[in-house]
Design goal:
mainly alpha, de novo design (two linked rop proteins), 0% strand, elongated
Amino acid sequence: MMKENPAVEKSFAFAVRIVRLYKYLCDEKKEFVLSKQLLRSGTSIGANIVEAQQGQSRKDFLSKMNVALKECAETKYWIELLVAADYLTCDERKTILPDCSELEKLLTSIVKTTAGTI
């Protein structure tokens, strides 16, 4: 695990929270379909960030970071859908959605900055 990189650290911590939320949804709410989508998109954010760091070029880095940004938006969608379907409460959403939004802002900044240098 690479340290002292806010994007890597925040996305890893977020992925851990997503895994725990997935377990909760499966164990307590008996919800398996939407939660699996949430698990895939929520853990993919950090995986794409780490992959971007090994990019072969700036364009490759930018492409992977854009994928991470898209996964972040998808994760927000699944969280909102889980709330609308009554699998998560609004209070539960308030505990995880800000972390996702923070990652989204961070990734947007990285993408814009990188795109400006290519």
